[in-house]
Design brief:
By secondary structure, this protein is an alpha+beta fold. The chain has one domain: Alpha-Beta Plaits (2-Layer Sandwich), CATH 3.30.70. A 4-stranded antiparallel sheet has the order 2-3-1-4. A hairpin with a 2-residue loop joins strand 2 and strand 3. Helix 1 runs antiparallel to helix 3. The longest helix has 20 residues. It is globular. The relative contact order is 0.28.
Length: 107
Amino acid sequence: MGTRLAVVASAAALVAALLAGGALAASARSDRGWEVALVHKHTLKGANLVLAEVQKQSQAQGLKAEVERDGRGDYEVSITGFRTQRQAAAARTRARRGFSPASLERT
């Protein structure tokens, strides 16, 4: 249960930081622009747990979080829709408060 609470707290902190910075573009559509990869999980179940918490915190704000399969046993949870690298980099900096491995990726 402690892990779930940590995920919820991290997701809430991330969404609050992203909203405070106004970093997301109006369109949160994949395969255009940049994304912030929050965390990689070994199982889809683990990735979906993180995704559910991030979505709970972000849906009302128009943010889009998703799980992407990066390979066998590698599932990435990310927030998409950044138009510029600069916006994504600023969001990554804030995201690292709750998700230390957060990184930028071109979509």
